[in-house]
């Protein structure tokens, strides 16, 4: 009887100590929240225990359609991360690491279509966006320059031959105020 208790304790101890060393547990840490199609992300994971010796695959699965896309068929688990260009359509997904015996899933995350494609040097859409921004800036700059020119022109007109805008002290280098003379008042707005 005591012999059976000792053997049971030895077996229990071996199971508690050795089983975690033989089998591994993988936790996928990323991604969380939302990611965008076309973006480059880093997928991270932790390994607890002995990593598997068989080839491991990393996949992404759509939660609603169950469509599976293989990211890497021969994943190097020791690296603890994998860089991937998101190439799946919009939807709710989860990642899976499968070593042939166990399949570990990440939490759900959302893949969204990017509002603007990621910038590339030869991307026509990005070039167009830059031109639109430059044109928009040019319009603002042009309006500012026209405004400056207009007020300098009005100042020169007041200095050369008089106008409806006169300096409050008679000195043309000072601020201008509208004339209160009724004859000249109407022509300011023409």
From TrEMBL:
- Residues crossing the lipid bilayer are 129-151
Source organism, top-level taxon: Eukaryota
Does the record bear Signal in its keywords?
yes
> What start and end residues bound the annotated signal peptide?
1-24
Tell me the keywords, alphabetical order. Answer: Membrane, Signal, Transmembrane, Transmembrane helix
Annotated protein name in UniProt? Uncharacterized protein
Supply the source organism for this entry.
Gigaspora margarita
What's the source species' lineage?
Answer: Eukaryota, Fungi, Fungi incertae sedis, Mucoromycota, Glomeromycotina
């Amino acid at each position: 009887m005591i012999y059976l208790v000792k053997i049971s304790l030895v077996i229990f101890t071996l199971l508690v100590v050795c089983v975690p060393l033989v089998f591994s547990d993988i936790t996928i840490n990323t991604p969380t929240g939302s990611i965008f199609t076309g973006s480059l992300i880093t997928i991270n994971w932790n390994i607890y225990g002995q990593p598997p010796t068989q080839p491991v695959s990393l996949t992404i699965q759509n939660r609603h359609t169950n469509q599976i896309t293989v990211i890497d068929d021969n994943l190097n688990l020791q690296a603890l991360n994998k860089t991937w260009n998101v190439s799946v359509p919009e939807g709710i997904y989860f990642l899976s690491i499968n070593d042939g015996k166990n399949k570990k899933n990440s939490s759900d995350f959302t893949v969204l279509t990017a509002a603007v494609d990621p910038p590339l040097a030869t991307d026509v859409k990005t070039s167009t966006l830059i031109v639109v921004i430059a044109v928009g800036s040019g319009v603002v700059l042009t309006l500012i320059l026209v405004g400056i020119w207009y007020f300098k022109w009005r100042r020169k007109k007041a200095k050369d031959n008089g106008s409806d805008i006169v300096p409050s002290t008679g000195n043309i280098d000072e601020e201008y105020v509208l004339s209160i003379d009724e004859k000249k008042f109407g022509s300011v707005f023409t």
